[in-house]
Amino acid sequence: MLVNITTEQGQVMDILTLIGTAVFLNLLAAISPGPDFVMAVRNSLNYSRRTGIFTGIGIGLGLAVHIIYCAAGIGYIISKSIIIFSIIKYLGAGYLIYIGICSILAKKSKLEINEERKAEDITRLQAVKIGFLTNVLNPKATMFFLGLFTFVIGPETPAYVVVIISLMMILTAITWFTIVAIFFTQKRIQDSFIRFEGVINKTFGALLIFLGIKIALLEK
Q1: Integer distance in angstroms from the first to the last C-alpha of the chain?
Q2: Which domain holds residue 141?
Q3: What is the pTM of this model?
């Protein structure tokens, strides 16, 4: 009886360790500078806190897509197919470069943060779409989740544990990007953005173009 209890406790600890490891690695990936972070900050500064948060929700939905196809084994097929991998890579790179060029060419609004500026905001659906496409078309995310499902989450991992890990990773990403949106929409930061809007837009545009080119040159 004691042996059984000890064994069950060991299994619970293994599961908790597995969940903690997967969520922590996902948080590190979300925090690290990349297309998701740049896009979330850009939308928060250019539009509103709401738009930044919904961009984060879109990123979370993108993660769900990566998780589903990697769990189904399709991620392995993508990683081995040069054609499929290249299509995703170039679509993602092209999308980031396009957004980057739009940021560089954007005209300075010359508006204060008031109702008039808020009227220029994009819709929730548009914000979700931007976040979703930024994440789902990032081949680095494909490789990250493929590695996660290969070296951390194995075929022997119970389905309910995979579901828990998946939900926690999605919620962790959305929470992180919500924090990012809240931080970058503080009045002091927004006032600074208004003052240097042209320079900041061009900087974010250049970053997105750089990330797009980097992704285009990515080798498997």
Answers
A1: 50
A2: 2-216
A3: 0.75
